[in-house]
Design goal:
154 residues; 5-stranded antiparallel sheet
Length: 154
């Protein structure tokens, strides 16, 4: 698979793109949406099946930080296969915004939505829809605690 990146290096590729993107301090900022689009254009060594490379948009209250926290993230899920082509794991590259939980964010609740190739709408249309989600406007009024790009294996 020439010119495709190794799945294991996906977070490094995403980090490199941050340096080439307009700055942003909230998920509704055009710089962040540009980053998601640019990352979606990068090809990785995944099997040629519809669910090997997909996206998740999610937000809500989380309880694994010291302080009450509200998180919004866009996740790219990439399948890892073994040498015989069998499923081994998924790598999740997370673009994660963290905010101090307040009453407005608590009231916003939680949400998740997946996108995979072959869906009724294109990836660009899906990215447009998440950029217009009401939560984006609410988060534009909040102070960002932290933005992090990280990778995990599931």
């Amino acid at each position: 698979m020439p010119n495709k990146h190794q799945v294991e290096r996906a977070a490094d590729v995403a980090q490199a793109l941050v340096g080439e993107t307009r700055s942003f301090n909230s998920p509704e900022a055009s710089g962040f949406i540009d980053l998601v689009r640019r990352f979606s254009e990068v090809e990785f060594e995944v099997p040629d099946v519809p669910d090997a490379d997909g996206y998740l948009f999610q937000y809500g209250k989380v309880n694994w930080f010291f302080e009450p926290t509200f998180v919004l993230n866009v996740v790219r899920q990439l399948e890892v296969v073994d040498s015989s082509g069998e499923h081994e794991a998924y790598i999740h590259v997370q673009f994660e915004f963290r905010y101090q939980l307040d009453e407005e964010l608590q009231s916003a609740g939680s949400y998740s939505e997946w996108w995979f190739p072959g869906s009724e709408r294109s990836l660009n249309s899906w990215i447009d829809s998440i950029s217009r989600a009401p939560i984006m406007g609410l988060l534009a009024t909040k102070t960002l605690r932290e933005f992090e790009i990280w990778q995990d294996i599931a």
